[in-house]
């Protein structure tokens, strides 16, 4: 076997290993989300109304609170929906970057008269949501 052939085989083995690890991570994430009926695009599009609040503070807008309350009632009866929504929200916050004020994220449910029964933060462990 020539050194070139051996190197090529090693590269393709690494590619297979990376592909298998990626697939395993994807399956783990999807199983954690269960059979969630809520879509990430819906959650993120609705909650974009809260972007100015979580960045600049002040008071959340009426449309922001309407979105928060609507999301709460949509996910209230399904743990898999709560977990899925959590991952979607974390992704949205990540896309907004370092301009997000962590204190406004944790205050948002209360500011919109929603009692989740658990604390919200940028670093929340979504899999641990009750």
UniProtKB/TrEMBL annotation:
Residues 40-126 form the Bifunctional inhibitor/plant lipid transfer protein/seed storage helical domain. GO terms for biological process: lipid transport. GO terms for molecular function: lipid binding. InterPro entries: Bifun_inhib/LTP/seed_sf (IPR036312), Bifunc_inhib/LTP/seed_store (IPR016140), Plant_nsLTP (IPR000528). It comes from the Eukaryota. The keyword Metal-binding does not apply. CDD domains: nsLTP1 (cd01960). It holds the Pfam family Tryp_alpha_amyl. Gene3D superfamilies: Plant lipid-transfer and hydrophobic proteins. Signal peptide: none annotated. Keywords: Lipid-binding, Transport. The keyword Transport applies. Plant non-specific lipid-transfer proteins transfer phospholipids as well as galactolipids across membranes. May play a role in wax or cutin deposition in the cell walls of expanding epidermal cells and certain secretory tissues. Belongs to the plant LTP family. This is Non-specific lipid-transfer protein. It comes from Ceratopteris richardii (Triangle waterfern).
């Amino acid at each position: 076997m020539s050194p070139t052939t051996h190197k090529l085989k090693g590269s393709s083995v690494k590619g297979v290993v990376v592909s298998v690890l990626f697939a395993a991570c994807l399956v783990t994430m999807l199983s954690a989300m269960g059979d969630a009926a809520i879509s990430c695009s819906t959650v993120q599009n609705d909650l974009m109304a809260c972007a100015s609040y979580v960045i600049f503070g002040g008071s959340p807008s009426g449309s922001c609170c309407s979105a928060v309350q609507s999301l709460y009632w949509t996910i209230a009866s399904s743990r898999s929906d709560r977990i899925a929504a959590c991952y979607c929200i974390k992704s949205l916050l990540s896309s907004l970057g370092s301009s997000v004020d962590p204190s406004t994220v944790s205050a948002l449910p209360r500011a919109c008269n929603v009692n989740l029964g658990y604390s919200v933060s940028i670093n929340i462990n979504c899999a641990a949501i009750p």
